[in-house]
Amino acid sequence: MKNFSIGLNIILLVAVIVLYVLHFSGGKTTNTKSSSSDTSAVDLKVAYINSDTVLKYYEYLKVNKQQLEERTKKMDQDYRNRAMGLQNEIAAYQRNVKNMTYGQVQATEEDLGKKQQNLQMYQQSLAQQLMQEEAKLNKELYDRVTAFLKNYGEEKGLQLVLKYDPTSDMLYGSNVLDITKEVIDGLNDSYKKEGAPAASATKTDTTKKSK
User: Fold this and answer.
1) Residue 30 pLDDT exceeds 60
2) Could you tell me if 48 and 163 are in contact, meaning their C-beta atoms sit under 8 angstroms apart?
3) Is residue 155 classed exposed, middle or buried when 0-12, 13-18 and 19+ CB atoms within 10 A define those classes?
4) Strand partners, 160
5) Hey, where are the domains in the chain?
6) pLDDT greater than 70 at residue 35
7) Which of 40, 54, 76, 151 counts the highest number of beta carbons within 10 A?
8) Do residues 53 and 210 lie in contact, with contact meaning Cβ atoms separated by under 8 Å?
9) Which residues form a coiled coil (predicted)?
């Protein structure tokens, strides 16, 4: 037991010596790094945008959504016309089936069956086309917004820009950090310089926060 106490005292003595040496040799370097790290944390510039508001007032998205909706309506009307035409053919067949021969019945039913399959394939093709157009629009929207935020962040000295919406992890942000309106104005200015058309929807005051 006595030997254990002596050994412990020696270990403690060595530890004290090591700490003493570190304090006067490497300690200053450690403190400098810690101070530098603290300074970086203090100087970190963060901002956020309300993504719902940006999407609501960004002219590029409004215009392209209107165009996509118009194409969707045309596709839907075309499909309805084709479906109505097939329905009329089926109704005519049902009215005249009693006066048709067995061969005519088989041929007509086979023809109507093929037309029905083609109509279903056409419907699936339209749905796939719309999905691809929506995906393309979302990709272009993401690229435009992120490219603008990168330039905006570099100009303003921002290290981080967060997205705020009901699904995000951000629960609160001071209005001082909210750059939503500046981003909307900048995006729309860039869009106007492209000579692109404006949306027909009535504009609303973007200064109102939708948080």
Assistant:
1) no
2) yes
3) exposed
4) 46
5) 1-30, 43-193
6) no
7) 54
8) yes
9) 58-125
Mean pLDDT of 26-52: 63
| CB atoms inside a 10 Å sphere around CB 89 | 15
User: What letter represents residue 144's amino acid?
Assistant: R
Tell me the whole-structure pTM to 2 decimals: 0.67
Per-residue pLDDT of 72-109, as tens digits, reads: 999 999 999 999 999 999 999 999 999 999 999 999 99
How is residue 128 written in tokens? 């796939």
Identify the sign of the CA torsion 168, 170, 173, 177.
Answer: negative
pLDDT at 29 over 60: no
Helix, strand counts (H, E) of the chain: 6, 2
CATH number of the 43-193 domain: 3.30.910.20
